[in-house]
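It is worth pausing here to work through a concrete case rather than discussing structure prediction in the abstract. The textbook approach is simple: state the sequence, then state the predicted structure, then interpret. We follow exactly that order.
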Amino acid sequence: MKAVQVTGYGDVDKLQVVDIPVPEPKSNEVLVKVKACAINNTEIWMREGAYGAGSKSGWKPEGVEFPRTPGSDITGVVVKVGDQVDPLMMDKDVVLFPFTSSGEEGSEHISEDMSFIGSEYDGGYAEYVAWPAELCYDMPLSSYSDSAVFSVSGLTAWHMVNQIHLKPGETVMVTGSNGGVGSLNVQIAAKVFGAKVIAIVGDMDAEEKLKELGAAHVLSYKSAHLSKEILEVNGGPIDAVLDVVGDALFSVSLEVLKKGGKFCISGSAGGQKTSLDFRTVYLKHITMYGSVLGTRAEFKEMLTAISAGKIKPVIDRTFTLEEAKEAQVYFKNKGKLGKILLIP
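Step two, the predicted structure:
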């Protein structure tokens, strides 16, 4: 089969299209013919070495074992089953839950042995992938491409909103609203949890689309008076922030949060380190959350909401498998709206 492998830490020249054997599913696994695989920051930062200390990067301290096939947002059709798998799984259209874990129900995502497809396992930048049958769920939509945009970004967004216990009518600021996680944060917060969303973007060309997704207000982080504009459109301080940017908007977030407000972060595309005056946190009684991925129960809740039409796929562009380098470069460009897909 054709696959894209990361051969080591570095730039996109570390991505190589290769011909390798089709994987053989283990007794508890199925073989999935990949129909679509969305791109996430996770596989780019894994390649760049941004997740680890020193020269190692990945979800485990020992780093990634190269060569590795990246890709974690995967949909496809089951074409072979292991000898312990229900034969009825054959020919099913599935979406893959993106990691394994021995953690108890409700804490799978914080287990020490959490291992990610595309990082600790070979992933979806390939024509076929083997994965545990119990982690393959029915596709929420009829389209492989539409169903592929939710696994990592959607689970991350769902867990972020769920974790801060967002209530109907509360106001939440969503940073990076044009991105994969951000655009889903807008939809989930507004359409599922009933919150009032202030979406923050760079390019205001996305304003109408974000309002269609559920944003009540869309503002640009390029404004010299962003904090003032947020307070004006809300009529005062806001209840919560869902952040995927990091340093670039951190001071604004703390400034516009009300006393007792909540700040949840799951990304740092705008800077991984920041300056924090602890007095702001304790004098305003701000609760801070770190968030990555989510639980299997949340994944199922999200799939149900997608099937019901509450959350819609937002796709910016598709590429072929052989165009993986171009796709990752394009992913890092500003101004896009929604997900980038690879179609084997």
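Step three, interpretation. The two ends are 10 Å apart (CA to CA). Residues 154-290 form a domain with the Rossmann fold fold (CATH 3.40.50.720).
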